[in-house]
């Protein structure tokens, strides 16, 4: 898969000549990760002029979470900025109904990689009473890792846009930037060649507004296309700029298409993972006045995650006779993969196994375990599951199943495999166990 969002789910199982059991008692679990640090910082908020009240100097409580705390250079990391307690409140006496607030903001990067990334949230909120406190809200965005080492993430400025009777903004800025660090990711050098990255001057605007797009690590002198994105598809918004001698870009994109939810930049005639960067989050605030007596009805589709589950934690492989040996056969517990991310990236499910340890230090080499993968795609899924090739699993690993990248991906899939452990003829009697690890990326 390309440099898309990479979520890894690891599941370990004990595989023996007679049984397969999950290490440590049978509970399925993803690796533990540290909770992001909730931080407080001074904030200066400016209510809309119509409210007739002075600026608000208060405290914002926020936290930042990432989908991958140990990325490689070239990976795209998804960031979620949650304002737990905003410094501002509803500045007017009029109660605000549900789902009229659109938050946008920025996250500040520090350490070995610096800059700001834009984040945006859906138009979704609980009702807010007149002069009542604004509720908690979350915003998401992405950034591409360009440098190995520790990268810090701090909450930045944010804006609360309300669309009720009037289109109003309440911008809140960090009084003493940067705010305290809430999360840190540690990047390793993955050897990937596409380190292109972009950032936006703002996370939102009205139809027809221009947004500044800056970027790094493009090919010096290359023509670069700036484009709006809605999910995996491009919108009608397009512009061009040229990378300077250092590979940096700086250009403006006029965003008029109300469907635009992000901005990308790429070299060549069309988007590619190899020569593109983004998307950077962007929201078009539709301020088109409604005809008298009309109501606007909005809806949204929320992106989900890439996940997997397995039907059980024990597999019985048939016993073989001492002196004869042969294949000890069985079936992998069915794995269900659900890809609800809604982006262009496919997925890959791989596995690797350790040597099979037996009595008195005896063992069966990991290369003796083979599989014949099978996978099925649920009707209506945009992607089609492809089984891996039959053969040895071994300690180096092999592909169990995958789906390709595409303009539209996702769906539900079931993955199975016939297992066969080739036991040498005079292997000492007893139970032999190895650890089979499946990894979804």
Automatic annotation (TrEMBL):
Biased composition (Low complexity): 387-398
Keyword Signal: yes
Region (Disordered): 379-411
N-terminal signal peptide: 1-29
Keywords on record: Signal
Protein name: WxL domain-containing protein
Organism: Streptomyces phaeochromogenes
